[in-house]
Design brief:
Helix 3 packs across helix 4. The protein has helices spanning 2-23, 33-51, 57-80, 82-89, 103-108, 113-121, 179-185, 189-198, and strands at 93-97, 100-101, 131-136, 142-146, 168-173, 176-177, 206-212, 216-221. The chain is built from 8 helices and 8 strands. The radius of gyration is 25 Å and the shape is elongated. The longest helix is centred in the N-terminal third of the chain and has 24 residues, at 57-80. Strand 3 and strand 4 (142-146) form a beta hairpin. By secondary structure, it is α+β, with helices and mostly antiparallel strands.
Length: 223
């Protein structure tokens, strides 16, 4: 039995390597949800083959290469037909346009503001207010164009006086006040209600609001 397991594992490893090389290279950041399904099913084929004594090594090879051929066929078809590629792999969507969060797109893609903030922080951006355009790629990663005022300066543009950057806090998300973040700032609920009132808004108007020490309160209302 142990020799059979070892042999099947070796066959599976060789088969997976061959399929991977045949289908081409792809960075992890470019992998789509459909690609994860490919990998899961390949893993399932190997797992079932290892513990099923009725499965022969040539059955494993046949299943691996049949699945590899099907993946190859799907990839070729989606490369050729734009409509099918969109259906099977999704498409890029604009999350932030001209500095404004696209509420409808976020809802359609089952996202939350805090998730977008997390993706932006991974890009070294700590406030939505710094973003001019943000695009959600089919891989789930985010591509960002910062606002011109936040672009790096050259040596000749450097100033002697400057204000240090500071982290931002999400204070309101979809009409809900984030009291934990207010506490981190040393503020109370009444403070944020007063601030949004000064700007002419009601709590029910606000999709999200974030604050940092450098730029103050940034608010976007429902569109």
């Amino acid at each position: 039995m142990f020799l059979s397991i070892i042999f099947k594992l070796l066959i599976g490893l060789i088969g997976i390597v061959a399929i991977t090389r045949f289908l081409g290279k792809k960075e992890l950041s470019q992998v789509t949800p459909l690609d994860f399904v490919y990998v899961l099913i390949l893993g399932g084929i190997i797992e079932e083959a290892i513990y099923d004594q009725n499965t022969k090594f040539y059955h494993v090879l046949f299943a691996l290469f049949l699945w590899g051929f099907l993946i190859w066929g799907v990839e070729k078809i989606t490369q050729k037909f734009e409509t099918l590629r969109t259906i099977m792999k999704g498409k890029n969507v604009v999350l932030i346009e001209d500095g404004k969060v696209n509420v409808k797109t976020i809802k359609e893609n089952k996202l939350e503001i805090e998730e977008i903030r997390t993706l932006l922080r991974m890009k070294g951006i700590f406030s939505i207010n710094q973003v001019q355009f943000a695009i959600l790629e089919t891989s789930g990663m985010i591509s960002v164009i910062e606002q011109a005022k936040n672009e790096p300066v050259t040596k000749k543009e450097l100033l002697e006086d400057y204000t240090e950057n500071a982290p931002s806090y999400l204070l309101i998300e979809e009409k809900e006040i984030k009291e934990d973040n207010l506490k981190k700032m040393g503020k109370e609920k009444d403070w944020i209600l007063s601030e949004i009132k000064k700007k002419g808004y009601q709590l029910n108007d606000i999709y999200f609001a974030e604050w940092n020490k450098k730029e103050g309160l940034f608010i976007q209302v429902y569109q």
